[in-house]
Design brief:
single chain, alpha+beta, Secreted effector protein pipB2 fold, four-stranded antiparallel β-sheet, 3 helices, 30% helix
């Protein structure tokens, strides 16, 4: 009897606290190996809009190791886009690095025309300056979807 009562209480608790969560993709595009999405996560109690930048970790070829950078503030996403534009406009031979502590880093090495995107665990992939600039322009065009 105690077990049955416990199961009923647990079930009712789960039902009371469970919420439906819906994700609505407001913008999505792919830039070589880098994907960019703006998502509205809607639950019964609130709504969250955030951006997701994802890429496959180059360390692995045979397993999927997708790395994700989440940015929910408009100001941070704008800074990310501005850095991509700055890096993509540099000529070959210039070396730059930008680190957003505990989130990501953007790197450009002097012997490359690619921009390297790295997550907080130093997992990375690279994409062309043209793709980086296209990503930055799409971010700027859609940045008003985020709240600050």
């Amino acid at each position: 009897m105690k077990k049955l009562l416990l199961v009923i209480v647990l079930f009712i608790t789960c039902v009371v606290y469970s919420q439906n969560t819906e994700r609505k993709y407001l913008f999505t595009n792919k830039y070589g190996v880098v994907n960019f999405e703006i998502i509205n996560r809607i639950s019964e109690s609130n709504s969250n809009v955030y951006s997701v930048i994802s890429f496959q970790n180059t360390e692995y070829k045979s397993i999927i190791d997708t790395r994700i950078i989440l940015i929910s503030k408009k100001s941070e996403l704008k800074e990310f886009a501005e850095k991509l534009i700055e890096f993509s406009e540099k000529e070959k031979g210039v070396e730059l690095s930008f680190v957003k502590k505990d989130k990501y880093s953007i790197n450009l090495f002097s012997d490359s025309n690619n921009i390297i995107l790295m997550d907080k665990e130093n997992k990375f992939n690279y994409f062309s300056k043209k793709q980086a600039k296209n990503l930055a322009q799409d971010i700027i065009s859609n940045i008003d979807l985020l709240k600050d």
